[in-house]
């Protein structure tokens, strides 16, 4: 799927990106990513942004994924200079212009998916997502978080799974919300890379982009954790395994984040965390090439390393469901039942 540039009025930018003071609950139905108290709304769900250092094991694995040596061609000098020139020329541009003119050079997968097992969606609200629950100690009723609407998100296509696995994904639903843990936008399954674009000219910030990404990342991680727990309720989560990355980008810089889970002492609900790993200047040829390679490496990691473990979990959960249904049917057919 390619992204078609939307019509952008000269003075519009995903509503105003300016930081606002907190609005009263009576004025809105969901918390706003632009409000100064939005991160408090996240914290009610144990979602945190750069609150504490990520585990060293997770950071090391994330860097190993991002910096893996590649054999395919790097960006040539002319293309790198084009990025620099566009970076200068887009200082006054709106978010959608940055997304559709600058980003495709650095993220060619926007228009040419490198692996048929991968899928991408563009600007689609996660209407089928399962909200991250409130922390059990929260007794009041805070505003719900908005449903994410990533500018770009990468995950898995139908071709990544067998028919049995696709049918099993259909079981990963939440009774209360009706959403699906694996397919929050009903197209991309098990999302693992999100990109948010911002315009400095329209007061867009990496701060707000992280707000967007933290909510979506928590939903995606919660969905993966749900599958692990369905497969085996006692199975522990490997908190050092990177499972979700996000990128925020404006005309001048890009920042890459890793999203991770922390197990609470004594068990109970996990907390969700976002940690910035690196910043890339779009005026620096070395950093431009590095960013290009990092994005390709994350996509390769998703297809080659992360996907097989998800498929195994789906197969194991399917067998558990089949055994459970067979046992239930056998019990029903016993005399006197």
Automatic annotation (TrEMBL):
Pfam families: DUF7924. Residues 86-314 form the DUF7924 domain. Residues 1-32 have a biased composition (Low complexity). Residues 1-35 are annotated as: Disordered. This is DUF7924 domain-containing protein.
């Amino acid at each position: 799927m390619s992204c078609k540039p939307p019509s952008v009025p000269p003075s519009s930018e995903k509503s105003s990106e300016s930081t606002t003071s907190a609005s009263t609950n009576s004025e809105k139905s969901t918390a706003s990513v632009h409000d100064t108290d939005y991160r408090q709304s996240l914290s009610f769900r144990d979602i945190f942004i750069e609150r504490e250092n990520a585990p060293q094991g997770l950071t090391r694995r994330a860097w190993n994924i991002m910096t893996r040596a590649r054999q395919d061609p790097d960006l040539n000098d002319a293309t790198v200079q084009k990025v620099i020139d566009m970076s200068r020329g887009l200082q006054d541009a709106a978010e959608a212009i940055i997304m559709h003119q600058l980003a495709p050079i650095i993220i060619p997968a926007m228009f040419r998916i490198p692996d048929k097992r991968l899928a991408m969606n563009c600007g689609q609200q996660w209407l089928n997502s399962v909200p991250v629950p409130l922390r059990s100690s929260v007794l009041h009723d805070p505003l719900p978080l908005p449903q994410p609407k990533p500018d770009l998100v990468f995950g898995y296509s139908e071709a990544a799974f067998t028919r049995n696995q696709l049918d099993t994904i259909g079981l990963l639903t939440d009774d209360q919300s009706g959403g699906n843990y694996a397919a929050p936008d009903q197209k991309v399954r098990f999302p693992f890379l999100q990109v948010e674009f911002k315009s400095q000219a329209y007061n867009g910030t990496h701060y707000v982009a992280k707000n967007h990404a933290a909510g979506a990342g928590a939903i995606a991680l919660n969905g993966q954790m749900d599958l692990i727990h369905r497969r085996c309720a006692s199975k522990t989560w490997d908190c050092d395994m990177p499972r979700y990355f996000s990128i925020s980008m404006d005309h001048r810089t890009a920042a890459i984040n890793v999203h991770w889970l922390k197990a609470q002492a004594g068990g109970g609900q996990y907390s969700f965390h976002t940690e910035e790993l690196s910043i890339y200047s779009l005026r620096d040829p070395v950093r431009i090439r590095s960013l290009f390679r990092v994005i390709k490496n994350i996509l390769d990691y998703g297809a080659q390393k992360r996907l097989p473990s998800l498929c195994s979990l789906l197969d194991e959960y399917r067998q558990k469901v089949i055994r459970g249904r067979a046992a239930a049917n056998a019990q029903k057919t016993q005399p006197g039942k």
